[in-house]
Every structure is written in C-alpha cells, then in structure tokens.
Amino acid sequence: MWVFDNVADVRGGCLYGGSSGRIPSAKFRGVQVFSYKELEVATEKFSEANVIANNGCGVVYRGVLSDGTEAEIKRLHREGRQGERAFRMEVDLLSHLHSPYLVQLLGYCADQNHRLLIFESMLNGTLHHHLHHQPPSLNWGIRLRVALDCAKALEFLHEHTTPSVIHRDFKSSNVLLDQEFRAKVSDFGLAKTGSDKINGQISTRVLGTTGYLAPEYASTGKLTTKSDVYSYGVVLLELLTGRVPVDTKRPPGEHVLVSWALPRLTNREKVVEMVDPSLQGQYSKKDLIQVVAIAAVCVQPEAEYRPLMTDVVQSLIPLVKNLSSVCPSKNQFLKI
C-alpha cells in the first residue's frame, strides 16, 4: 500500500492485477488511456521528423494530442519481460506520484503488443544535451537551480513516500528541462520500492548506467536510497565540471569523473581548475566551495557517509535564494 506525505491527489489500487497480465482501461486521476491509433495521429504516424530522442529504452516523439496538448510520446522497444516490467513500473509509479519535480505522465497505451507512455512536453530537452552535446548554454544560476530541483525530486521519492522509491537510474539524460529551464526527473522504468526502514536495503539485479552506479550497489547488488544519492553527486559533478561520468578520450587518470574529482574536491585551488570552462568564471567562489562540498559527500565510497537528500535540499536553498536576490534580472528563472 502506498502512503504519501503532502500529496493530495492519490488514487489507491494497483494498475494491473489478475493473471492475464493486461493493464485494465481504468482512468487514473490525470492519467488517460490512449489507443495506438490516437497516438499514430498525434505523431503523424510516428514520423521521423518528430523524433526527439532514441535510446536503449525506446524512441521519443513530439506529438499533439486530440485536445491540442503538446506531449512527448515514448514508444518502448519490445524487450520481453524486462521491457514489460519497466513499462508497468513507470505507469504504476507515475499514476500515483505527484510532484512538481517529477515529469508528469499524461497517459499510456497498452494496445496488443504496443507499449507507449505519454508525458508532458519538456521543451528544453535533457540536461545531458545542454551540458555535453551543444555549445554549453547553462549559466551558474540555472545550474544551481537544476541541482536544487533534482535534489527536491529525490527527496520526495526517498523521504515523502512510504515505502520509499529508489530511482536506480538517476543521470543527466533522465533530467528534463522545461521552457524556463526548471528540471524534472524522468524515466522510472528501473525504479524499485525500498524498505520501510530508514536506509533499509534491498537486494536486486545490478541495473543502471556505468559511471553513475554507487560502488556498493555495483559490486553487491545491495540497493538503498543512498545509491541514488551517489548518482546525484555524479550529476552535480557534471554540472560543476561539464564533464561526462566516463570519458576514455581523456588522459589516463581522468577517464572516470568521480575518481578524478574526489582528490581535488578538498583543494580550493584545484576546485577552481575543475570548473566548466564555459562558465568563464561567472560564479561565486563562495557558492562554488559549498556546492563542491555537497558533491564530495554525495560521492563518498561508503554509503553511510552520504547525506539524506533533505540535507542536500536544505544546503542548496540558501544558495539559490541568495543568487535570486543578488541579481534578479540575470536569473529570471530562479524562483524557489
């Protein structure tokens, strides 16, 4: 049974029961069931021109629903049991979880063998794209705001739902940005519900993305909310440095972002050298030191030394508030 703190619109019941394995055509609050034909129309027959992204999980299309709503329509690859599990987990979780820091599920389609998810439109794409695949366009203020939005998303999953939800694949390509560069966390296909106990662990198959996996999870399969905290620390390092988590094109000793960064995070001179050159020095050194300290504790090799996401949120809020008040005209999107 799901229990939520500070969440008003929650519907009880499981999305799929019985032995048939089919998802019933029930309409959950705000989540609509679509036919495959409707989604064909919405995407102009899944036109290549409407493709936004194509990855291991599926293809994402830009679409317009029958009521005029712009949406992102994700057609999942047919991967057998694991693909079906990911689809069901995403529908079940996002039908129940409502937070401004999680991407909104508008509906789904389970016609015959087709599995599609319909999400709100996030016009500025992924954080990964903005950091690594185009001339970097995110200033220091936006990066701080994104860091806080992501921290609030994980805080909600870990500390405001019972049992807690472990994302298990938190990374910059699963952070989406809206038209005002506000961040929302997406892709819950690998998520697991955690133990009812604080920091309780569960054992599971090791799934996720290389470079973001907490060492204890990668080596033993023992999963806790602290595994997500580690992944969050990696994304924070991406925001700070502009580097990807694993880059074999870099010199020896610099291939793995965390291994390269950790020894430098306690040296103030080296910290400044680590900062993404595209920021061109446009940041507060005092704020930088504080964000670096957060990143350092999040990527600690020992899970017990990592903070709760609530602690991360409380550390970041003053930095974003201060940034907004110091220069509101340059940080128009930094509303808390």
TrEMBL record:
* Organism superkingdom: Eukaryota
Pfam families named in the record: PK_Tyr_Ser-Thr (PF07714)
The answer to whether keyword Transport applies is no
Gene Ontology MF terms in the entry? ATP binding; protein serine/threonine kinase activity
Per UniProt, the keywords (alphabetical) are: ATP-binding, Kinase, Nucleotide-binding, Serine/threonine-protein kinase, Transferase
Q: Indicate the segments forming the Protein kinase domain, all copies.
A: 46-320
Tell me which stretches of the chain form a coiled coil.
Answer: none
InterPro entries according to UniProt? Kinase-like_dom_sf, Prot_kinase_dom, Ser-Thr/Tyr_kinase_cat_dom, Ser/Thr_kinase_AS
Its protein name is Protein kinase superfamily protein
Record organism:
Actinidia rufa
